Amino acid sequence: MKSGKANKWAIAFAGLAVIACLYIIELSKIEVGGSQRVPGLDNVKASDADKQWAPFYRVRASLIDNQTAEFDIPEKLRRKDGEQITLTGAAMFYGSGCSASGDKVSVEYFFLVPSLSIADACTILPEVMMRYRVRVNLAEPWVLSRVEMTAAIVRLSGRFRIDTSKPFEAAFIVDEAECSLAEND
Fold first, then answer.
1. CB neighbours of 122 closer than 8 A, spacing ≥ 6?
2. Which of 27, 59, 121, 174 has a beta carbon 3.0–4.6 Å from 158's, enabling a disulfide?
3. pTM (2 decimals)?
4. DSSP letter assigned to residue 44
């Protein structure tokens, strides 16, 4: 009886020893010190458009009572209040800022976000919208075709201001803006 129990333990121990040896063999195949070949955020290159939006990426917005919001705006962005600013981003055209006439649309104001993917997130998440959405009030109406309005990437310049009194519309505003469609890179 005892020899049967000893055999079971010996088989179990031998099985564990084989598994341990296989793990050691596999671990010995791993190369150490290859971290220079792994891409990381240190060597990611940003476009000029991304650099323009960098201060906005540090903005934080929190809903307080589903009607108001609290903002944490970095000093670098606060210093731009009242100054000329240049931005490139995805345009979001909404009803009251646009009037249609045939296949052309006259735009008086629209909203700008860093990219089309963030434009999608803005429609779902109010906190995202509050951080990135910029209302663009044009110096004069801008006439576009409906095709040009689809997935439009816009380059603009105008006077930047911060107004957090209407967080669900936009906390950041560019007044007297002049803009043009940007080439998709």
1. 92, 113, 128, 129, 132, 133
2. 174
3. 0.69
4. P
